[in-house]
């Protein structure tokens, strides 16, 4: 993806933000008390750090996965109802797509998560996970945000 003036922040941060979100989503999966997708949605919609990341705040963009994890508004998360587990490949793909879409289209994470909740993003994995990330972002944007 090429940098343009409409992206959320400098491309210099993009790979690191993707990497930290992959780790964050894995940490969420390890939590056995709360539903993983509920935690993802809560983080994307209500986290003050995530909101600052959307705005390109360099300090927020440099937070660790554990710092992001500790910023999840846990009171908004649903309790885990079953023993459903998600593998790291799926969670990594979801993290990458959320970060890329937010960055590429400069859409607030809350708005992105409202349009494509984590459970819906999970359903999109099988038809899209073998396509280039850029193409997956374009297809998802067209389907959910236009």
Please tell me about this protein's structure.
- The chain is an all-alpha fold.
- The protein has one domain.
- The protein has 9 helices and no strands.
- It has helices at residues 14-30, 36-46, 48-54, 58-61, 65-69, 88-105, 109-115, 118-128, 133-144.
- It starts with 13 loop residues before the first helix and ends with a helix.
- The model has no long low-confidence stretch (mean pLDDT 95).
Distance between the termini: 20 Å
Topology as H/E string? HHHHHHHHH
Which term fits the overall shape? globular
By oligomeric state, this entry counts as single chain
Strand residue content: under 5%
Low-confidence stretches are none
Radius of gyration: 14 Å
Q: Helix- and strand-based class?
A: mainly alpha
The helix fraction, in percent, is 55-70%
Query: What integer is the average pLDDT?
Result: 95
Number of domains: 1
Largest sheet: none
